[in-house]
């Protein structure tokens, strides 16, 4: 006779792909154990692999997608020790302690947050290393351009909370691997679960947010060095280096933009994405333009142009078409290819100069090491 955890089904809907009206529906109900996504459980197959494959291939046939493929997710003993008793006062004091204002960070859009590693340190301090753990319930699932995975947090052997972690990811995105995206989703789920323990609860308090911003952050103007677009972003005001990643640089709003074609550049510029702001500082390399191109440079510019190490290589370098300079340099055969390119392409001097600049950058890096 089947047993049900609850008669209530929790539906988690995501409108990640609005064009196709796709949605993700996770149902906390054991009657789904007979669905296609869990067919591997009853016939002796590997439930993890079978569930993962079917979730990706068959999930949208009926419009619904079952995310939680671990059969243990549907058993009541999963909730062992839930709300049995409060944790000791010593533990509670650590979990509920006020945050150090210097530990809090702010995103360019003004959202304040506590770095994920701080949550881990608080848990380790409260329960000790090994006294807490995140258990995944089901494999990672990619829907649209987002990777998601459900987790539950256990402390001292007791169920505490559960949440779904997410991370922007796509097969066509070269700067983040599937493994890195999965780890980021795990960290995201941990932060969400820690809210139930009261860790960093002030980060969601509007009064605290306004007070912290007034004392620790400020808004400054930044200019996109490529498009000359100007945006107002939040940064820390504690004197620490908090520059935004390339191509954004701090700008004086009262100054005239560095190019005369402000109107044309602003019309072609696109809004900055959140993922690009959160990426690590990018490396840039400067190279000299050929004489015939100098006349095209405005008086406000010099004879140098920046190469973004994460930009896609020119299409003339056919062997690495679609790849970035960073990927080319990381290839064992990339150095010899650059040497060939730097001595070729006389009919494409810009490509030749870029290859020479990358080679010079590599040589300088090796000397400095």
Automatic annotation (TrEMBL):
Chief location: mitochondrion
Biased composition (Low complexity): 257-277
Subcellular localization(s) per the UniProt record: Mitochondrion matrix, Mitochondrion nucleoid
Protein name listed in UniProt: Mitochondrial genome maintenance protein
Entry keyword Endoplasmic reticulum: no
Gene Ontology biological process: interstrand cross-link repair; recombinational repair
Similarity comment: Belongs to the MGM101 family.
Species classification: Eukaryota, Amoebozoa, Evosea, Eumycetozoa, Dictyostelia
Ranges annotated as biased composition (Polar residues): 278-287
Sections of the chain in a coiled coil: none
Location of region: Disordered: 255-306
GO MF, any single term: single-stranded DNA binding
Species name: Dictyostelium firmibasis
